[in-house]
Amino acid sequence: MARGLTKSFGGTRVLTGIDLTVPTGSLLALLGPNGSGKTTTVRILTTLLAPDGGTATVAGHDVTREGRQVRRAIGLTSQQATVDALLTGRENLELFAGLYHLGRRPARRRAEELLERFDLTGAAGRRAGTYSGGMRRRLDLAASMVSAPPILFLDEPTTGLDPRSRAELWSVIRELLATGTTILLTTQYLEEADQLADRVVVINGGRVVADDSPAALKRQVGRERLALRPARPADLPRAGATLQGAHVDPEAGELTLALQGPDHLRHALNVLDGAGIPVERVELRTPTMDDVFFELTATATGALA
Where does the ABC transporter domain lie (predicted)? Predict the structure, then answer.
């Protein structure tokens, strides 16, 4: 639980009063643009950084006054893998177990349990440096679970993974939730939050601008979306600038905007036609987490359009 967390670096205020509550056994996804304060929040909650103001407790312990107790109750998987590339998968887990003072035999036993749980038994004797990206992330997650912590912080754990590896890690996260682990997840992938989270908190400008379930946030956006694909890909930036409120997605080669009424589609097509931009495809869609994120972070105030 966090109340009124603030943090500045030099003259830049990164957090301006963050409030968070993560119910036991649930997954809360923390979303926000780059630089919005997601990682700073995680670093404070994991005792790696002291807040300037506000209070936070993890597992009932104050993060500033009871850091040792907090660290005993949590596991952390950061954006960069922390495993040693020169050690085997088994050696990495035994090393982490040793850091928790498990003793040699218990350390070996715990390493074997985790290798099996994270489907790494077949690669246990290989150096971690030879693992695929997905395997290394699973090993990193296994290392954070050596002490069987009740609370897990995952800071963008699937960044850089291919879709198959990402789906495999999602499956592991669901298994952890099923066993009662409480998880705070930061992610760049909005589908990930939609698939995994019980609740989503969106921060923008160092403050919380939304806190609800994925379904409720999509209902809040409410309106159907128009998706328009220009016939000429080179026209996409100009089309986005021509239509007010449009969100350009270069990867999909399309732009989307909230449907304002029954005549909005005809109006949008007329505007693009007048600008000499032919449209190849038109589609109506229900709101997605991408739409939620865009509308919540599109303005400095974070207010819904």
Answer: 2-230
Q: Based on the number of CB atoms within 10 Å of its own CB, is 155 exposed (0-12), middle (13-18) or buried (19 or more)?
A: buried
Instruction: For residues 184 and 20, give the distance between their C-alpha atoms in angstroms, rounded to a whole number.
Output: 10
Residue span of the structural domain in which 274 resides = 223-286
209 shares its domain with 236:
no
Asked if residues 83 and 133 have their Cβ atoms less than 8 Å apart, the reply is: no
Q: Which of residues 218, 242, 274 is at a domain's end?
A: 218
pLDDT at 234 over 80: yes
Answer for the pair 41, 51: CB distance below 8 angstroms, yes or no: no
Task: Based on the fold, state whether residues 166 and 237 are members of the same structural domain.
Answer: no
Residue 305 has pLDDT above 60, yes or no: no
Instruction: Give the tens place of pLDDT for each residue, 36-75.
Output: 899 899 999 999 999 999 999 999 999 999 999 999 999 9
Q: Which residue has the tokens 């291919």?
A: 162
What is the DSSP track for 160-220?
Answer: T--HHHHHHHHHHHHHHHHTT-EEEEE-S-HHHHHHH-SEEEEEETTEEEEEE-HHHHHHH
